[in-house]
UniProtKB/TrEMBL annotation:
UniProt-recorded name of the protein: Amyloid protein-binding protein 2
One of the protein's GO biological processes: intracellular protein transport
The protein's annotated pathway: Protein modification; protein ubiquitination
Encoding gene (name): APPBP2
Organism: Bos indicus x Bos taurus (Hybrid cattle)
Keyword Protein transport: yes
Biased composition (Basic residues): 125-138
Known function: Substrate-recognition component of a Cul2-RING (CRL2) E3 ubiquitin-protein ligase complex of the DesCEND (destruction via C-end degrons) pathway, which recognizes a C-degron located at the extreme C terminus of target proteins, leading to their ubiquitination and degradation. The C-degron recognized by the DesCEND pathway is usually a motif of less than ten residues and can be present in full-length proteins, truncated proteins or proteolytically cleaved forms.
Topology class, membrane: Peripheral membrane protein
Repeat region (TPR), residues: 538-571
Keywords annotated in UniProt: Cytoplasm, Cytoskeleton, Membrane, Microtubule, Nucleus, Protein transport, Repeat, TPR repeat, Transport, Ubl conjugation pathway
Length: 694
């Protein structure tokens, strides 16, 4: 008897439905209503063998559908079920899930929902009657490709259903609709997220089952292993796209173990691809030390291929290495490797790889203050992602976040807020719930809103997004995860400004103490991950210095600022933006609180010089330096200088009004005047003319 098997289902061991359920919930009578269970054996027709189901996909869907129903947000379930039941090519992705969900629905649903359930129940009844008629006439052979035998199967578990559905959706080509969206993937991400939010650990169970299955087939032939590797790439890619990095890492590690069992050239190519995917998820999960080991392993396989006269494209690998070095604040090395990645871009590369390389190269150019190059790269990446994936795709939101990063660093703060908001809207629509991608978008929007409203003091919106980011991350990840360091830092900055403007001393002290605890926690996480001598650690020292100034602990503040300046100067040079920021903060401390006017004047002038050199006369940070100098000269009685800098500040205000008029930043990326090949060639040509900068 042949056993039922989808193209992927054979790799996954049957699991109990209880593995998917929150603790304390039974997988039998407590969950499945009589209407949601499979038909009794007597309903299967004459001659049906024990264990043979008339519609096994109905059985699997019936088991899981009640949880999908309950997980979906109120009011959205009917539409979600209706569209989720359609997939590429017209084949039902979630067969009979709508009817099973209807069986688990309340007895008296609202009017529109009641009508929808009746239609679906009627359609299901018609299909069942049609199958019975064909069975009586001898024209029905369930699940038999040849029509000559009946298939003996075991009832699929929810794991079987959700795995085959996920893999079918992720491996199918994304056919762009008129709105250029991939609806199937969007709905599947939402279903996964809804289940995870309700305690159904779908991602963990899938990763564990795949890993266990791979250990069982270690002694099988090469074809079985190759099929398992393909399944692992699809499953791991889906989990990675959804932000479940730990589970994706487990899947890719299992694939890598299968690749290492055969020391042959085809498996070397597979191993390189697996290393690239593994490096990506480890970067996303802040496992930078393991990421470095993964890159070294990939290089080993690259060397093996080179010795045998074979070459693999290295663009994706170098792009991920650039992301790793950027996250560790090794900006010179990141810039070098982004150039190498750009050299590897060809017309045959997948668009996703090209977009990712352009994004990483743009970020590397931003931190190296190569703003013209960064603008060209990120605008083309945004255009490419929107044109190929659509305006509702997660990859498009990735490019928008990096576009917002560029705008924030070139001092176009207002537009960066709008771009970050657009990216957050997309991620919420795709993932929803407590997802790590949504959390990072909240954090970026919180910081840009904080900078945008710094002068006005209206931080409610920034605080909301910072707290949302922290809430999501702490729900998903351990309390000592590095991703929390950045979110806590942003919230601490906001709380400090709110405390300064607070007229209640008790509330002020409470907010400052909370900010202090957040800054210390962020500093410890950064030191644990990067060590003392790192730009991220220096930023936390600088933030502590500002906080100590607000807490009137001036000696501690001076110590923190000096430490931050020393680290930044050694890592970034004397004239970097980060150095100017810390220099300006120390000047403010000397000017407003320690009355060291001579030292403050030197530091203000140095900060102004760096700001003008990098960003021009209209740089927003110059306002605080100009106001600081006006206060300083007024304190020492130099009224001629006071009058001079009043005029300078007035000219700066007029320049800002002309320089940054309100426009839509996305209008610039609706079209691209250059092709990808021209953008790459322009970047490399400019690099050759200028020579190495690192």
């Amino acid at each position: 008897m042949e056993k039922l098997c989808s193209p992927w289902a054979g790799f996954f061991l049957p699991e109990s439905p209880a593995a998917f359920l929150p603790s304390g919930v039974s997988a039998c009578a407590d969950v499945m209503t009589p209407r949601a269970r499979s038909p009794a054996p007597a309903e299967l027709g004459a001659g049906t063998e024990p264990g043979v189901l008339a519609d096994p996909e109905c059985e699997a869907s019936a088991r899981l559908a009640p949880f999908l129903w309950r997980a979906l947000p109120a009011g959205s379930a009917p539409a979600a079920r209706s569209s989720a039941g359609r997939s590429q090519g017209g084949r039902a992705l979630l067969p009979c899930a709508r009817v099973a969900a209807a069986a688990a629905a309340p007895r008296n649903p609202p009017g529109p929902l009641r009508s929808s359930l009746r239609r679906e129940a009627g359609a299901f009844g018609r299909r069942r009657r049609r199958r019975r008629r064909r069975r009586r006439e001898g024209r029905w052979r369930p699940w038999s490709s040849s029509g000559s035998q009946r298939l003996s199967i075991t009832p699929p578990s929810p794991l079987w259903w959700i795995t085959t559905s996920a893999l079918a959706a992720t491996s199918a080509p994304c056919r762009r609709t008129s709105s250029s969206t991939c609806t199937t993937r969007h709905l599947l991400h939402h279903c996964f997220q809804a289940l995870m939010d309700h305690g159904v650990k779908v991602a963990s169970v899938l990763a564990y089952s795949f890993s266990r299955r791979c250990s069982y087939i270690a002694e099988s032939d090469a074809a079985v292993k190759e099929k398992a590797i393909q399944v692992g790439f699809v499953l791991g890619g889906f989990l990675s796209d959804a932000g479940w990095y730990s589970d994706a890492e487990k899947v890719f590690l299992s694939c890598l173990q299968l690749c290492t069992l055969h020391d042959e050239m085809p498996h070397w190519f597979r191993a390189v691809e697996c290393c690239v995917r593994l490096l990506h998820v480890r970067n996303g999960n802040c496992k930078y030390h393991l990421g470095e080991e993964t890159f070294k392993l990939a290089q080993t396989y690259m060397d093996k291929l080179s010795k045998h006269g074979q070459q693999a494209n290295k663009a994706a690998l170098y792009g991920e290495l650039c992301a790793l070095l950027f996250a560790k604040s090794h900006y010179d090395e990141a810039y070098k490797w982004c150039i190498e990645a750009m050299k590897e871009i060809t017309t045959s590369l997948p668009v996703k790889v090209v977009v990712d390389v352009l994004r990483q190269a743009s970020k590397a150019c931003v931190v190296k203050r190569e703003f013209k190059k960064a603008e060209q790269l990120i605008k083309h990446a945004v255009y490419l992602a929107r044109d190929h994936f659509g305006s509702k795709h997660p990859k498009y939101s990735d490019t928008l976040l990096d576009y917002g990063f560029y705008l924030l660093n070139v001092d176009n703060i207002c537009q960066s807020v709008a771009i970050y908001q657009a990216a957050l809207d997309i991620r919420q629509s795709v993932f929803g719930g407590k997802n790590i991608h949504v959390a990072t978008a909240h954090e970026d929007l919180a910081y840009s809103s904080y900078v945008h409203q710094y002068s006005s003091g209206k931080f409610d919106n920034a605080l909301f997004h910072a707290e949302r980011a922290i809430g999501i991350i702490t729900h998903i990840l351990p309390e000592d995860h590095l991703l929390l360091a950045s979110s806590k830092r942003v919230k601490a900055l906001i709380l400090e400004e709110i405390a300064i403007d607070c007229h209640n001393k008790e509330t002020e002290q409470r907010l400052l103490q909370e900010a202090h605890d957040l800054h210390l926690s962020s500093l410890q996480l950064a030191k644990k991950a990067f060590g003392e001598f790192n730009v991220q650690t220096a930023k936390h020292y600088g933030n502590l210095g500002r906080l100590y100034q607000s807490m009137r602990k001036f000696k501690e503040a001076e110590e923190m600022h000096i430490k931050a300046i020393q680290i930044k100067e050694q890592l970034l040079g004397q004239e970097d933006y980060e150095v100017a920021l810390s220099v300006g903060h120390l000047a403010s401390l000397y000017n407003y609180d320690m009355n060291q006017y001579e030292n403050a004047e030197k530091l203000y002038l140095r900060s102004i010089a760096i700001g003008k050199k990098l960003f021009g006369e209209g740089y927003s940070g110059l306002e605080y330096d100009y106001r600081g100098l006006i206060k300083l000269y007024n304190s020492i009685g130099n009224y001629e200088k006071v009058f001079e800098y009043h005029n300078v500040l007035s000219n700066w205000n007029r320049l800002r009004d002309r320089q940054y008029s309100v426009t839509d930043a996305l209008e610039d990326v609706n079209t691209s005047p250059q092709s990808t090949e021209e953008v790459v060639q322009s970047f490399l040509t400019a690099q050759n003319v200028e020579g190495p900068s690192c």
